[in-house]
Specification:
It comes from Ceraceosorus bombacis. This is Oligosaccharyltransferase, gamma subunit. One of its GO terms (molecular function) is transferase activity. By secondary structure, the chain is of the alpha/beta class. About 55% of the residues lie in helices and about 10% in strands. It has 13 helices and 7 strands. The protein is elongated and about 85 Å long. It starts with a helix and ends in a 10-residue tail after the last helix. Mean pLDDT is about 75; it is low at about 30-60 and about 135.
Length: about 375
């Protein structure tokens, strides 16, 4: 009995973790899909303007921008206004400037912007980490939100986003005439990192040091599937061994109660955490907030991130397992000391997890007045 009870507990844990891992893997894969931009247009060029900044003696990059790029976790400069856009793209420059015009934080529904945001961060981070000490031409990455640069969008006659512009140097050995911008064609080339890196390599004159992100979706899918298979083998092997010689129906029904219980609980946890909503809406896995910090929870009840689903699903799974432990596994303990300890431990886990769920709900709705521990 003790062996079967332990196998059942292990099966529940492995199956729940496997479902959550597969859920996370599918969300990561969905976030990497290549949508098509809803609009297209020819390359636009900004009006000429004078640069009022002093150039750095080595790179020509204004010191303020150079400092911000070095302190940013991804090496991206957030342009606060149209003047900063003019400053970083106009005048005499012996560096290349890559500017992304987007609408992630502008209160505009722009799924292509959300999809391309992590790709752009990966590109900038790859350059920041791989180009230190390099003698190659200097490149600076920047970003202008629609809410901060509406005048720039109007000047460039843009009614869509995202728009990726490459400004070549106007002085030095890499200079290209007037330094007019070259627009990346999302409709033709797509939203993936390797295509953008190839575009930058062609215009920079050397191979852009792009580092592909770690394939979390593949790893999570593998471990999720492996966990489900191992859990099934652990539970079914003893049952099948006992049922040998009693017919196919007896073997098929061996251990079915625990399997269906775990599968039903795992399905309920995944669906109540918002997995279906993310699959239908194609929500991004996470977004970058102010100062480059990742945001895992979207404010309000009409928005949600994939990471939020994974975290809330883990909370629900822990709540479900702690409740099952208190009602099924703990009463089955014959040792009074272990039984009492199990009550204390699982009660604390249940209440602490429920407190964290309250805290997440307050992030979604700051006016919610209740809390438990946190």
């Amino acid at each position: 009995m003790a062996h079967r009870r332990l196998a059942g507990q292990l099966l529940c844990v492995l199956l729940v973790l496997s479902i959550i891992a597969l859920d996370c893997a599918s969300l990561v894969s969905a976030a990497k899909k290549r949508p098509r931009s809803s609009s297209s247009g020819g390359a636009a060029s900004p009006g000429s303007a004078r640069s009022s900044s002093s150039a750095n003696s080595n790179s020509g990059i204004p010191p303020a921008f150079l400092q911000q790029a070095s302190t940013s976790p991804h090496g991206i400069i957030d342009l606060p206004n149209p003047q900063s856009f003019v400053q970083i793209t106009s005048g005499a420059r012996n560096y290349s400037s890559v500017v992304l015009l987007t609408a992630v934080k502008s209160g505009v529904s722009c799924q292509p912007c959300n999809t391309f945001a992590p790709v752009y961060e990966t590109l900038a981070k790859s350059w920041k980490s791989k180009s230190r000490g390099s003698s190659k031409a200097d490149v600076i990455f920047s970003l202008l939100e629609f809410k901060d640069g509406q005048d720039v969008f109007r000047q460039l006659q843009l009614s869509y986003a995202p728009v990726l512009l490459f400004f070549p140097p106007t002085s030095g050995p890499k200079a290209r005439g007037s330094g007019q911008p070259i627009k990346y064609d999302f409709n033709r080339l797509g939203f993936e990192g390797p295509e953008v890196a190839s575009f930058l390599s062609d215009n920079l004159g050397f191979a852009f040091p792009y580092v592909k992100p770690f394939p979390w979706s593949t790893v999570l899918s593998f471990f999720g599937s492996a966990g489900a298979i191992v859990a099934s083998i652990i539970l079914l092997a003893p049952k099948i061994a006992q049922a040998r010689g009693q017919g196919v129906a007896s073997i098929a029904s061996a251990g079915s109660k625990l399997i269906w219980t775990a599968l039903c609980l795992a399905t309920i946890v995944v669906m109540t955490s918002g997995y279906m909503w993310n699959s239908i809406r194609g929500a991004p896995y996470l977004m970058m907030g102010p100062k480059g910090k990742p945001e895992y929870f979207a404010a309000g009840f009409q928005n949600q991130y994939g990471a939020e689903t994974t975290i809330v699903g883990a909370f629900y799974a822990l709540l479900a397992f702690s409740f099952v432990s208190l009602t099924v596994f703990v009463p089955a303990q014959r040792d009074p000391v272990r039984q009492r300890a199990g009550v204390y431990v699982w009660s604390v886990i249940f209440l602490a997890t429920f407190s964290l769920l309250f805290a997440v709900f307050r992030i979604k709705n700051p006016s919610y007045p209740f809390r438990l521990f946190f």
